[in-house]
Amino acid sequence: MVRRCIYCGTETDLSKSDIIPDALTNGKIINPNACRVAHNNKFSDMFEDEVISKLAFITNELDIKSSKGNQYARYSANVIVDGTEYTTKMNADTDLFNKKIMRSIDGKSLIGPMNRIKEMKGIDYGKIAETDINQIEIEKRVSIDIGGFFSQKIHRLAAKIAFEWYCLNNNVADRLNAFESIIEFITTGKGIDPVRIIGSEDIYNLINQMSDLGSHSLFAYVAGDGTVNILVSLFGIAIYNVRICDCIMQECSYNAMFLTINLDAKKIGFKFISQNALGQELQKGFQQVGMFNGLQFMCPNNINDTSITCKMLYFLSGIYDADLPFNDESTEELTETIKKTLEQGFKYFGINNKRTKKICK
């Protein structure tokens, strides 16, 4: 079979696309059918880099760094040292006093390594004082722009992740006309936006039962109206519903799928032709081990199947018939949902320390 780009159909200069950008995950999933110049490379400038920048504080705190440069993404922070507030961009807390020179917001003070300060021109040496940073109070303030979770660029990223993952699992290696609408949105930002942010706490609870906080999860299903959809969960903080196409396609057999990528890069997932096929697999996958008070006790045939819980939760979720609550824009209710999941994540990973204050706006 001749491989072609899933976006434009060209046979030349195909490359391996990181379905989830490298800087957002410790575990790669690759689609090998995206042309290098026109699509794979350009997506970084079109929308990926901005999303990575907006989420930099989260990826830093979760110890996620790009393997390409072996660096954490940079984020903006205000640092208060002994009552004076400084502004800086940083990759990690170790940057603060080892190599950076920070200027105070009022422009009257500088702080940094003594040797770097002395190398600066126009410095009044009589006003330089040494400070032991271990003996003074330091507070870091980071503003997290909630609006970034509702931007068109994160919608385009969610659509790209869903589309490339769906094509990978269904061995799509060419441009198919049924994907024309989602391709137009990913590549140009025009046309119908197939992405909606989920507002239902039940869906967040479902995904977080199937995966750990901080993980990325993908959940493909056929809705009651016959459309093929994928839930894209970024860190368990924001979940997007991406409409892939209007109906099940002959070329794409698998439409009941799940994948979670943990922070340690471990992956748990499965794919089935349909929900019914998954149900049949579950029925065959258990054996009766006893009875008590008229109740059957069942045990998995394969106790090493790490995906069994996810399969059961998927099958029992009832998402296929649900009218998922979402909105086109950032509403107060949806904003509060994102703030809540962010705070849950911070507490889960112990980020809620006294020296870092997070401001959601």
Structure, described:
The protein is of the alpha+beta class. It has two domains: 14-53 and 147-345, no CATH class; 84-136, no CATH class. Helix content is 30%, strand content 26%. It has helices at 36-54, 56-61, 95-98, 114-119, 152-169, 180-188, 201-210, 275-284, 308-316, 332-348; strands at 14-18, 30-35, 75-81, 84-90, 102-104, 110-111, 138-144, 195-198, 216-222, 228-234, 238-245, 256-261, 267-272, 286-292, 295-300, 326-327, 356-360. The strands form four sheets. A seven-stranded antiparallel sheet has the order 13-12-9-10-11-8-16, sandwiched between helices. It has a six-stranded mixed sheet with strand order 6-5-4-3-7-17. It has a two-stranded antiparallel ribbon with strand order 1-2. Strand 10 and strand 11 (238-245) form a beta hairpin. Helix 1 (36-54) packs across helix 5. The longest helix is centred in the first third of the chain and has 19 residues, at 36-54. The protein is globular and about 80 Å long. It starts with 13 loop residues before the first strand and ends with a strand.
